[in-house]
Amino acid sequence: MIKVIAIGNSFSVDAVEYLRDIAAAGGVDMLVGNLYIGGCSLKTHWNNACSDAKAYIYYRFDKNTREETSDVSIREALESEEWDIVTMQQASYDSGVYGTYEPYLSNLSRYVRNIRPMAEQVIHQTWAYEIDSDHEGFLNYNKDQLIMFNALKDAYSKAAKSLGARIIPCGEAIQKARASHLFDYANGGKSLCRDGFHASIPQGRYLLGAVWYEFLTGKSILENPFVPYDENTSSSPTLEELAVLKQCAHEAVLQYR
């Protein structure tokens, strides 16, 4: 079994929503944990670690169960399982501002290492906002998607280098998919964001889960049979969309190896 936990926010919620099901379809037993506070930054994560704050909603998914627990601390979640991988990420609005990462990332890394010394620490690269996003954090990047993507790509690269960590390239995969006519929002394609910044359901979330699956397992997503289904809209990606999303996930992971 692969055991992975994210110290994250709503972007990690998007990333792991379909991960367990994708893994199961690929014959992989996976336990997925997610420590969630909406919009949570590395600074807040570190402050919460210092105070042992029971501030998180903790999501725990395995092949049989889906649990949600409130008022959980980072320490409690880390101590609850022998985690193989712990992921960390910056809040999306500061993702391209490297000055906001430190000293919080390094401090958090040491904290995690003290509790789970055998776990691999990994950087989760988040994604750029949609071109017409009204998120106030988009102003950090002159409301320009490409500027935001290049800035976050550079910042996450520096963060990973500082820890000697690998990157889960979700932002890269999203940007690759946006180059397809299917998801070229500026020219009539579907947006991969449902509100200008969170991942669309099911296409955007599926793409993120595909990236995590291939990164974590080393198995190709291209032949994975899982197809996501959104009960709210009674919809799934088309076969053409699935093919593009799988290819973009695959290419992004290969690019970052």
Automatic annotation (TrEMBL):
Domain of life from the UniProt record: Bacteria
Domain DUF4886 per the UniProt entry, residue ranges: 3-236
Pfam families assigned: DUF4886
Protein's recorded name: DUF4886 domain-containing protein
Organism listed in the record: Clostridium thermosuccinogenes
